[in-house]
Design goal:
Elements: H1 7-19, E1 23-25, E2 39-46, H2 50-62, E3 68-71, H3 83-94, E4 98-103, H4 116-131, E5 140-141, H5 148-151, H6 165-168, E6 172-175, H7 185-191, E7 196-201, H8 214-236, H9 238-242, H10 244-254
Parallel strand pairs: 1-2, 2-3, 2-7, 3-4, 4-5, 6-7
Length: 256
């Protein structure tokens, strides 16, 4: 088993967890009812690549696992109403996965913390209108370190969220955002060191094939996005289509 951030190893991580006797719960489940058991709350924050979420969802569905996917409604890199992303959300929902709001508190610099609960309600309504899916009660705050004193290990009245003590300090919390700080998750599950875990992934970090570490994977992601934009403009913009050779030549020159 090669420990990397490929989709193949993600599947191996989940298989290891199941073999070790872990059950996968959602934020709707009562954790107190599972205190004597090994459990994992599996969560995905969608930041840059909604299309990759479907690979995670399919792996989990094949293994009989239901996880929670959090999508932004005001994300700079993606739009949940765009056809491809909309289809991803509907497919995840059809597989029985939970969907909810990845809350970006920074989109409006004039908003105040006092307005956050009302903002969540409004964004959930927009989420449902845009996707046809009712989001769950629990939200995930985007870039929570910006609001650490308000969110991290705090209860926010009227806004259940993924960084409450019962999900953050009272059980073991793991995130892939800066690599594994206690070794790969496959070893964590295999050793059964922590009976209760919240496990967060960001699908943009996990390509189909690992390219040699985080930075190499990010470089490949940026390259793929550049190629995607180039192809889109050549196909749909009349001037770019007409001047395709010149455009591609200039792009090759700027890449040197």
């Amino acid at each position: 088993m090669k420990c990397d951030f490929s989709l193949a190893h993600y599947k191996e991580i989940l298989e290891t967890a199941l073999a070790a006797g872990y059950s996968f719960l959602s934020y709707d489940d009562d954790l107190e009812e599972h205190r004597g058991k090994r459990i994992c709350i599996l969560r995905h924050d969608i930041d840059y690549t909604p299309e990759r979420a479907v690979f995670f969802g399919e792996i989990e569905a094949d293994l009989g696992i239901r996880s929670t996917y959090f999508f932004q409604i005001c994300a700079g890199p993606y739009n949940i109403r765009e056809r491809r992303n909309h289809q991803v959300i509907r497919r995840l929902n059809d597989w029985g996965h939970h969907l909810s709001l990845h809350l970006d508190l920074g989109w409006n610099p004039d908003s105040s913390w006092a307005e956050v609960v009302d903002q969540v309600k409004k964004e959930k309504q927009i989420f449902q209108l845009m996707t046809g899916v009712t989001p769950g009660e629990t939200v995930s705050v985007h870039n929570p370190h910006r609001y650490a004193d308000r969110v991290m290990n705090q209860v926010v009245e009227g806004m259940p969220h993924t960084y409450e003590p019962k999900y953050f300090s009272e059980i073991k919390y793991f995130s892939d955002s800066q690599g594994w700080y206690e070794g790969c998750m496959c070893a964590i599950f295999r050793e059964k060191k922590y009976p209760h875990i919240q496990f967060l992934t960001h699908p943009y970090i996990w390509p189909k094939e690992d390219k040699g570490g985080f930075i190499a994977n990010m470089a490949e992601l940026i390259k793929d996005r550049s190629v995607e934009l180039e192809s889109y403009l050549v196909k749909y913009h009349p001037v770019c289509k007409k001047e395709e050779k010149t455009l591609r030549s200039l792009l090759q020159g700027s890449a040197r």
